[in-house]
Amino acid sequence: MNQDMRTFPANRAVVLKNIRCVYCGEMLSGLNRTKDHVIGRRFVPKGKFNAQFNLIVNACRACNNKKADLEDDIAAITLAPDVTGRHSHDDLPAIEEARRRAENSISRRTRKPISQSRETVNLNGSLGPGINLKIAFTSPPQIELPRAFELARLQLMAFFYLQTYKTESQVGGYWLHGYHPVQMVRWEDWGNAVMRQLMTEINDWDFRFHCITADGFFKAMTRKHPTAETWVWALEWNRSHRLIGFFGERDPAQAIVDKCRMTRPVTIFEQPNQSLHYRVETPLSGDDDTLFDWTEKVAT
Ligand SMILES: [Zn+2]
User: Which domain of life does this protein belong to (predicted)?
Assistant: First the structure.
């Protein structure tokens, strides 16, 4: 077993008695101390935390409220189907709940319920004299990227805090240097060129944190660069969205990102002031999916 890897119970929550807020470091007392479920209880479908791992920490009221606000619409959107009504899974109670939640949560982007937050883009173009083109694209409800990466950052901070937590002093640690998110992708595109290249690049890195919980509706992992103070991280929310990035020293992360190139988009037309390109989404088959694979090599 890797010496930096601790084992936590898989069948219940771990509760920290930290005396400072995990997210901002503020000293906690009285009214300002709240309990935070790091994976929000309503972030995954109902009942998914029965006898499964979660992390409960103390946090200040402001950080707890900020995180709950991020979780609300992000949960509803990550539970929602694609534009054709497809889900990435066949968990019927979860699908039923997703429908209800889409009525009740407001998209921060459209200010409308998630169920009415599909986005349509209309494009009018011309392929030449007399050949006009009208195209409408519909996309599923979207999460604002900065909000998604902020929620990811808070979840990752709490897991890092857990790994570095000292019971005697009741405090945990924070990673140094920066936070470098790379990409968020819906399940239809988990096999895109960047995701595939990243999986290859990090394949030999040691796991530092690995968690699959809530019946697979929440996944998280971090792995450490072989020589640098750089970690790669990945999260999967509600079997639909994956987020990936790095924290720690930036240059080793940048070197890897520089090797990852999205495939070139297809061009429908390109004229001065008017162009239309699209990129085909690439699904990932189970056999090629190693992102959250716990390899025995690491555990020996
Ligand atoms: Zn705080």
Answer: Bacteria
pLDDT tens-digit series, residues 33-53: 999 999 999 999 998 888 899
Strand 241-248 with 230-237, pairing: antiparallel
Q: Are 56 and 96 in contact (CB under 8 A)?
A: no
Q: Tens of pLDDT along 118-177?
A: 887 776 666 667 777 777 777 888 899 999 999 999 999 999 999 999 999 999 999 999
Which residues have C-beta under 5 Å from ligand 1, the single-atom ion? 21, 23-24, 60, 63
Where in the chain are the domains?
13-77+142-299
Residue 257 Cα to ligand 1 middle (Å)? 31
Dist. CA 33 → ligand 1 center (Å)? 9
How much distance in Å is there from the Cα of 238 to the middle of ligand 1? 26
